[in-house]
Amino acid sequence: MRSALLLSTIFAFLFPCLANAQEGAKADIEVSSAVLKTAEWAGYKYMENLDKAKAGDAIALTSFFKFSGTVDGTEALQHATTCLELIPFATDEKVGTVIYSLKPNLQAVLLERFQLAQGRTKKEALLKPLQDWAPFTWKGLHGEKVICSVCVGKDLMTVPPAHKPGEKSLETTEPTNTTGKQ
Predict the structure, then answer these.
(1) Closest to 70 measured CA to CA, from 37, 103, 118
(2) pLDDT tens profile 97-113
(3) Ramachandran bin of 43, using left for φ above 0, alpha for ψ from -120 to 50, beta for the remaining angles
(4) How far apart are CA 103 and CA 143, in angstroms?
(5) 8 Å CB contact between 106 and 72
(6) d(CA 155, CA 62)
(7) d(CA 166, CA 48)
(8) What pTM was computed for the model?
(9) pLDDT in tens, 59-86
(10) Cα 82 to chain center, whole Å?
């Protein structure tokens, strides 16, 4: 009897700690083991790029979104879920700016896959329409110009545009010298 009371008391004190630990794990990004195997096969450093992308690194974000062309089927949906869950970490504005710099065909693929990934994610905040919680990403996915205001003048967005001259391009920094050249 005493041991049952002692056990229940200990559980009552430890349960909130266990619940918080699980919430911390849920706050992270879902990564599929199948996608990791494909990345390994392709020689792509998936977790390294994911960590950099979570920090808002434009080159890692670009690489991560371009990896979408390597996966198909179920893995494409799993990778898209990871990409979708990445947005709050990297910030909507940076993700939208990077997506805007991608080729229109890749933007269309990402749009379709992000919408499918919303049906797969376990993060309730991401179930709302994308244009509501990630308006810059939504604009980038639809080819609308997005410029990261945090990045302007800080040379944080150094991703070269994926478009031909005359097409839309990624313009994220102002000229840095008096000649008007960057």
Answers:
(1) 37
(2) 999 999 999 999 999 99
(3) left
(4) 9
(5) no
(6) 16
(7) 34
(8) 0.70
(9) 999 999 999 999 999 999 999 999 999 9
(10) 7
